[in-house]
Amino acid sequence: MQPDALKTGGEPARRPIASRSSGWAIALSRRLAASSVTPNQISVASVVFAGFGAALIALGATPLAWLAAAVCVQLRLVCNLLDGMVAVEGGKKSAVGAIYNEFPDRVADTLLLVPVGYAAGLPWLGWAAALLAALTAYVRVFGGSLGLAQSFDGVMAKQRRMAALTLGLVAQSVEWTVSDTRWSLLIAIAVVAAGSLVTCWTRSAAIADGLRRA
User: Fold this and answer.
1) Facing residues of 12 across strands?
2) Structural domains of the chain, count
3) Under 8 Å CB-to-CB from 35, ≥6 apart: which residues?
4) Is this model's pTM higher than 0.85 or not?
5) In a domain, 190, yes or no
6) Which domain holds residue 88?
7) Would you state the pLDDT for residue 13?
8) Where are the transmembrane segments (predicted)?
9) Model confidence over 43-98: pLDDT tens digits?
10) How far apart are CA 171 and CA 124, in angstroms?
């Protein structure tokens, strides 16, 4: 994600990420900034990794496939970290950064969450999780459109959604070695859906409170 692309009050709307200051992220973003790779291409790469993860979840059905899918989830997040760093710290901002700021994230979320619902035996829950994940972003951006600071808070913001999904996939790889059940995937997608619903509520309540104070 390129967090410089969406602004509120003249300041970049940037998701607070601790790993942005880590040595490996700084070194890798500098190498990418010095190359011909653009932030928008990194954003698209996040969707590619999500697509691979989706295929592994939907078609793999083996411990190795679920572990590989968990790696894809994390690689998606690495892309989300690096595209913003290359754009801002690397000085490679794009005029269409606002598009690449949001659209790839929504596609990646859907690609990763929907197959989990099918794999867990409850397709509707995967779709619900994807819809609610998109709604958390909508509420955040809507707050910014009203002149408020965009809020990245919430019990199931993007990093936490992906953390829950990664944990569920790793747990499922272990579960599958002792049983043919898929409780780990079911619990993971239910937690993401419920947490996203709560996040929508708390962000909406914060917007209402901000408007009253304005």
Assistant:
1) 7
2) 1
3) none
4) yes
5) yes
6) 7-213
7) 62
8) 44-68, 121-141, 185-206
9) 999 999 999 999 999 998 899 999 999 999 999 999 988 888 888 776 778 888 77
10) 22
